[in-house]
Design goal:
20% of the residues lie in helices and 32% in strands. The protein is an alpha+beta fold and 176 residues long. The longest helix is centred in the last third of the chain and has 13 residues.
Length: 176
């Protein structure tokens, strides 16, 4: 196992047949799509890939990724650190024809001879992004509650416009 940069490309079927694995890092400069949706990277992406074959001789890749990124908190609009972690079992397929035959625990990976490992790590991290990034409640710089401001507005009491109608109705029933 290497503890350096993950190789750019690999023949994952060959790796699975030989039960190879790799562990290393991918820099944000190699993940342009991820860079476009975050503010900054607090660390390089750490990835671990372990290739093998299952009982049905399918080519599998056990992948785990980890990266800490800065995103804009949607509550206070200040930067917040988001910890991205994924684990998946990918089944390497030539085409999408046999996806329906895969067990639910396998995710399909459609690939030709060589697979771009940097793009694979980036895909996993993109899947881990939260839909709405936010600080924890105690760490958020937002002054208000979930909805509205922290100070409750006092609504002045207004006179009921139908109060006079009620008195007219009482007067009419007294006349009868």
């Amino acid at each position: 196992m290497s503890q350096t940069t993950i190789p750019k490309e690999a023949e994952l079927r060959n790796w699975a047949a030989r039960e190879l694995s790799a562990k290393g890092f991918v820099g944000l400069d190699k993940m342009q799509r991820l860079a476009s949706v975050i503010l900054d990277a607090r660390s390089n992406a750490e990835a671990s890939l372990s290739c093998r074959r299952d009982e049905q001789h399918r080519y599998l890749v056990d992948i785990s990724t980890h990266m800490t990124v800065a995103m804009q908190c949607q509550r206070c609009l200040m930067p917040c650190d988001v910890d991205l972690r994924t684990t998946a079992i990918l089944c390497v397929l030539w085409s999408d024809d046999s996806i329906s035959e895969l067990p639910a625990s396998y995710d399909p990976l459609i690939s030709g001879d060589a697979t771009d490992l940097h793009a694979l790590v980036e895909e996993e991290l993109l899947l881990a992004l939260p839909a709405v990034p936010m600080h924890s409640r105690g760490d958020c710089h937002h002054a208000g509650n979930e909805f509205g401001s922290a100070v409750e507005d006092v609504v002045p009491q207004r006179e009921n416009p139908f109060a006079g109608l009620g008195e007219l109705l009482k007067g009419n029933s007294a006349d009868n």
